[in-house]
């Protein structure tokens, strides 16, 4: 299991759980999603879906603001495991903060770089979150979510300063919190 979207200023946090149904390596490059290009992630995504049980959990920005990013991430992870369709015997989790689940969880720091199934989950989570942000761009095109995906880039900051926060911004994250006061409701 892995997640995408802990750090962005906008959008959901997304987790993916993957149980591979084959022991053979997949016919695409599998690695930590951050070490793959967008094209490589998009090529791997359908291949993983064909050769795995996949569960995806999504917690929106307003819930991130309500419960905090850690709790939102744990919620998304729990949702992902619940949506697998089959119960795992054990869950390998990227990082050091596993969610409370009724099965053993083994946290692995840097797991997306050393565990093939975690790397697959990393790709599923990242591609899924990116697709949600491209959809968000259609709703709020003035923010450029299709380019920066809600992450804290110079472009995003400039657009945030120009337009104020959107409904999918995380109001408790800086600089959104600081700029929110400049754009009263």
Question: Can you give a write-up of this model?
Answer:
- The chain is α+β, with helices and mostly antiparallel strands and 185 residues long.
- The protein has one domain (2-180): Nucleotidyltransferase, domain 5 (2-Layer Sandwich).
- The chain is built from eight helices and five strands.
- The strands form two sheets. The chain has a three-stranded antiparallel sheet. It has a two-stranded parallel ribbon with strand order 4-5.
- Strand 1 and strand 2 (13-20) form a beta hairpin.
- Helix 2 packs across helix 3 (69-82).
- It is globular.
- The mean pLDDT is 96.
CATH superfamily: Ribonuclease H-like superfamily/Ribonuclease H
The overall pLDDT average reads 96
In the CATH hierarchy, the architecture is 2-Layer Sandwich
CATH class: Alpha Beta
* Biggest β-sheet: strands ordered side by side in the sheet: 1-2-3
Which stretches are poorly predicted, pLDDT < 50 over at least 5 residues?
none
The helicity comes to 40-55%
| Class inferred from helices and paired strands | alpha+beta
Shape: globular
User: SSE order, as H and E?
Assistant: EEHEHHEEHHHHH
């Amino acid at each position: 299991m892995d997640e995408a979207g802990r750090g962005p200023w906008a959008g959901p946090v997304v987790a993916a759980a993957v149980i591979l149904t084959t022991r053979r390596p997949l016919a695409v490059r599998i690695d930590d999603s951050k070490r793959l290009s967008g094209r490589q992630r998009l090529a791997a995504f359908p291949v993983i879906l064909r050769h795995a049980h996949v569960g995806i959990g999504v917690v929106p920005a307003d819930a991130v603001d309500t419960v905090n990013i850690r709790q939102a991430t744990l919620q998304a992870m729990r949702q992902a495991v619940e949506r697998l369709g089959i119960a795992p015997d054990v869950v390998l989790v990227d990082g050091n903060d596993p969610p409370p689940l009724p099965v053993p969880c083994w946290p692995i720091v840097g797991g997306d770089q050393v565990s093939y199934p975690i790397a697959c989950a990393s790709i599923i989570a990242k591609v899924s979150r990116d697709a949600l942000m491209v959809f968000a761009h259609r709703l709020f095109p003035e923010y450029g979510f299709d380019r920066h995906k809600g992450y804290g880039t110079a472009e995003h900051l400039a657009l945030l300063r120009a337009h104020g926060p959107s409904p999918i911004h995380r109001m408790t994250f800086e600089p959104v919190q600081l700029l929110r006061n400049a754009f009263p409701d």
